[in-house]
Amino acid sequence: MALPSKPIIIKDRVELYKDFALNLLYYIHDYYLDRVTLGQDADIYNHYSWCFNKVCDEFKKEEIDFSKNKTLKDYFFAYYYQQFYAANNKQDTTLKYFEGFWKNIFEINKHKNKNIINILIELYEIYDESVCEERNILEIV
To answer: Looking at the predicted structure, is the pLDDT value of residue 92 above 80?
Structure first.
């Protein structure tokens, strides 16, 4: 009986993916107007899409294209829709809160609980859809 294969996590990619997540956070936070202006789901999605596309454009300059990764876009939209745009508790929507959350997810030198590791692996595999499509970059293990 074969053992299930373990995912291989490349540290340089984790750093790259963390940079993407944090840049997306900064755009969402910095360009968020208010709940009244972005009260409709279509407005929220347009704001989020603009932010996502801006981050993708920055990474394209480094020849990494995340813009075609619909799974990545949908993943972050679902997260930010629930945790930021529709959140009722403003205490948990601060920049510091989200920075800490994403840095914790992508910090690979810390001991983590199983849920955090699972989130990291899930996101890593979603991001990899873009990186592995383009060319094999950052293949230093």
So the answer is: no
